[in-house]
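pinging the channel bc i need a second pair of eyes. not urgent but kinda urgent?? the chain im working w is below, pasted from the shared doc
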Amino acid sequence: MITASSTLRGHIIQACLQLETTGLNRGTSGNISCREGDHFLITPSGMPTAQMHPAHIVTMNFDGKVIGTGKPSSEWRFHSDLLKHRPELNAIVHTHSPNATALACLREDLPAFHYMIAIAGGDTIRCAPYALFGTETLSHYALEAMRDRKACLLANHGLIAAGRDLDEAMAVAIEIESLCQQYLLARQNGQPVLLSTAEMQAVIERFRNYGRNVNSPE
């Protein structure tokens, strides 16, 4: 019997495979979570995507306890805290994608060099300070960097992207990786000209008018 839970678990695994095929994650890096009622589902710790089956997806409550069996990703804490404190978000995608991670290693925000920065809800993609992976401190930094945003960089670590559902979270992750690549390329040839606060606000308003469309409003 196919249930809503098993369908969501399958969707999570398909998203993990997409992250690998697009080069946003390699090996066992990165993780994904999705809200499911009063708990959430998260990818297991240290398991290659090719070996993952729906039964391997771990169920957790928002107190950090596993429901049933399985060992959750070591990053379960910021997944749990983001889903708990941001009720409008239902999916979190964490990657070590090359360009986002490269910029995160510079400990820099991604500025408004391109209007598509607005896909994450603001005029920058903030970079959270460094903290040891899996810690409460990292979760605190991530929550602050994600304030009013759907994405942030983690210093010397990677990227967090979120959305109202897994499709949106994936779209945000893919777009931010592309923007980081474009920004780093532009930096090799000079200093990118940034859009003004007023110009970015106009873009953000245009995105709002397009409702559920997370793609470029062209």
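so The domain at 4-209 is CATH 3.40.225.10 (L-fuculose-1-phosphate Aldolase). and The two ends are 42 Å apart (CA to CA). — does that match what u expected or am i reading it wrong
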